[in-house]
TrEMBL record:
Residues 1-40 are annotated as: Disordered. Gene3D superfamilies: Vaccinia Virus protein VP39. It comes from the Eukaryota. It comes from Immersiella caudata. CDD domains: AdoMet_MTases. SUPFAM superfamilies: S-adenosyl-L-methionine-dependent methyltransferases. GO terms for molecular function: methyltransferase activity. Pfam families: Methyltransf_23. This is S-adenosyl-L-methionine-dependent methyltransferase. Keywords: Methyltransferase, Transferase. Belongs to the methyltransferase superfamily. LaeA methyltransferase family.
Amino acid sequence: MAEQSTSKQQSTSPKVGSPKSPSISPTGAGSPAGALLSVEVSDDYNDDADSALGHGDDAFSSTASISSSIFEYRTIKGRAYHSERHNSDYYAPVDERANASVDITHHYLTLLLDGKLHLAPVKDPKKVIDIGTGTGIWAIDFGDEHPAAEVIGTDLSPTQPEWVPPNVRFEIDDATKVPWTWADGTFEFVHIRYLFGAVADWSALFAQAFRTLQPGGWIESAEAEVDFVSDDATVAPDSALALWGRMCKETGEKIGRPFTVLTDNVQKTGLETAGFVDVQTVDFKVPVGGWPRDAKLAEVGRFVQLTLENDLEGYSTFMWNNVLGWPADEYQIFLMKTRKELKDRRVHSYLKVRYAYGRKPE
Ligand SMILES: C[S@@+](CC[C@H](N)C(=O)[O-])C[C@H]1O[C@@H](n2cnc3c(N)ncnc32)[C@H](O)[C@@H]1O
């Protein structure tokens, strides 16, 4: 990315435009996540002090324009979720707190890609769509970088800001309702990021992307596996962090929208089955906390920790209470333990993130 982005996010969102950071290559390009190199632990992260940011170590099947005011949400335990008109069971809220985490996530992913917004070799596309755009922060940054491109972001809820670059707009659309309303060959780039837990049929999603792309157009899919793992056994099997993985996986099975996108190799298989060629995958270990010796990865890790600590309830309450019906009196203890483990400098956990991209043949 050539310039610092000027995302016009609402004031409730952190200013997390595209970063400039030291360069580091992803490890294990094209290899399965388990084959990634290990991330070295900084000497400061083997003691038993808590880490703390700021403590010195860094601190409906048809689309509808949002201007038609579909501003409806449902409230669960004081948090705003998608309107019931969408049969999505989507686990995360869509309020200000949740949106802040989406924006921080964009920040750490952009850091991870050394300031780039994507890995697919896309050249000056004229029409781009960001599926499940969230706060629209990726679409806005992409629109800023490519003023000649028309960029559309779609989501179930109109949580995106109103003040956006003139070439960017947002629409309400359920990506899982097929066929998409877009005509064949509409786009030159389809971007899909962090829809784990939201999609029942990834093949159907990729097939729609294939249909609506022009020949020669690119798709990119970036997903994470919500399992906290470690290479040095510092994530204990009976830890709260380990319980997160089980909670997500059991939720995915119960609602039929898996969280195991990487384990199931959904991206590569799905893209190739849809007809994409030149499919590449790039795997990352995304640290949780500032424990890596490598400065860039430590910075990424601090933002991962921040996005989690910002909204542990938002990420988990629907799963724990509404989907799984796990004991309500244990929920607060679970959150408390999670917070403690996230701050524990002896725990060197990471999440796996996979970028996959491919081209529609000419
Ligand atoms: C974790 S956020 C990621 C946002 C954005 N893609 C990013 O990476 O910054 C997932 C988003 O997907 C949206 N979503 C979930 N199910 C969806 C569906 N069926 N159709 C469209 N968007 C959906 C949610 O509303 C949420 O905004």
